Amino acid sequence: MNTQAFHATVYGWWAKRFDCLPEEFDQPGTKIIAEEALAEKGSAHLYTIKQMAVLRAPQDLAKALKKQTAVDLASVPLDAAALNDMVGGRLSLKSTLLDHFLDQKNFTPHPLPEGFTLRFLDGSKDDEILRDFYSRCTAEDLEEAEIYVDDPDPVILGLFDGGVMAAYASHRYWDDVLADIGILVRADYRRRGLGRAAVSALCEWCFAHDVVPMYRVFSNNLGSLRIPQALGFGDVIPIFSFEYESR
Fold first, then answer.
1. Can you spell out the DSSP letters for 64-122?
2. In the predicted model, what is the mean pLDDT of the chain?
3. Which of 14, 19, 141, 226 registers the highest number of CB atoms within 10 A of its CB?
């Protein structure tokens, strides 16, 4: 997949998600999407996609922002601070997700450490190996890596030290064009480059199958952030999630 196809795939997916054209992301502005369900959750979500900001918000918040006259939202992309100022400080930032996407031309592969091997696993045929690995990880680790024990991902890669599975990498598809990668390294094997090596191997699989590798991570997870940075993931979409205090 060349760079043109990469951009068409990534930003075409987001354009479909937000019912706009991919070229709109190259124009400064803010798109506001009212979602009634967010009022029940008391939340709002702000995406920064190239030069455009996209805000998913409860209807009352969306209506209030659309009435703003001090700022022309059609030509100004809101950031988190400006958004909160405009609504009188009624937003409290809960988390920031960073969605990374990898163009093959920017890929910096990371080799397997000496003595380790990798193999692709079948979620049903290799259930015993996977469950043994899961049992050696904490519930918090499994949740953070978004590993669902009883619902295995379609593509799973294991990194082995002899007969011991030391690291797990997998992906789930977004409409068969994006591969959302997850990684988990056993606690006793960390800080040895296994995470980068496993994700690197999975990225190579993605390129061979014409799928764009994607890596989603919270901004405060500094250890996990080093993986996409090391491998060359260059296109990043921040997603700010807020608690919203309705009036």
1. HHHT--SS-TTT----HHHHHHHTTT-EEEEEEEEEEE--GGG----PPPTTEEEEEE-
2. 91
3. 14
Q: Domains in the chain, ordered, with CATH?
A: 3-101+238-244 (no CATH), 108-213 (3.40.630.30)
- Spans of the chain below 70 pLDDT: 68-71, 246-247
User: Is the pTM of the predicted complex or chain greater than 0.85?
Assistant: yes
What pLDDT sits at residue 41? 84
Q: According to the model, what pLDDT value does residue 66 have?
A: 74
- Residue 71's pLDDT is 61
| Residues 103/2, Cβ–Cβ less than 8 Å | no
The rounded distance, in Å, linking the Cα atoms of 194 and 160 is: 10
Q: Is 237 helix (H, G, I), strand (E, B) or coil?
A: strand
How many C-beta atoms lie closer than 10 Å to residue 69's C-beta?
Answer: 5
* Nearest-angstrom CA–CA distance, 37 and 39: 5
Q: Which helix (H) or strand (E) holds 216?
A: strand 212-218
Q: What is the pLDDT of residue 68?
A: 63
Q: Are 172 and 180 in contact (CB under 8 A)?
A: yes
Q: What is the spatial distance between Cα 69 and Cα 61, in angstroms, rounded to a whole number?
A: 15
The long-range contacts involving 161-169, CB below 8 angstroms and separated by at least 24 positions, are 161/115, 161/116, 161/189, 165/129, 165/130, 165/132, 165/133, 166/116, 166/194, 167/194, 167/195, 167/197, 167/198, 168/130, 168/133, 168/198, 169/198, 169/199, 169/201, 169/202
Q: Return the pLDDT at 7.
A: 96
What's the pLDDT score for residue 148? 77
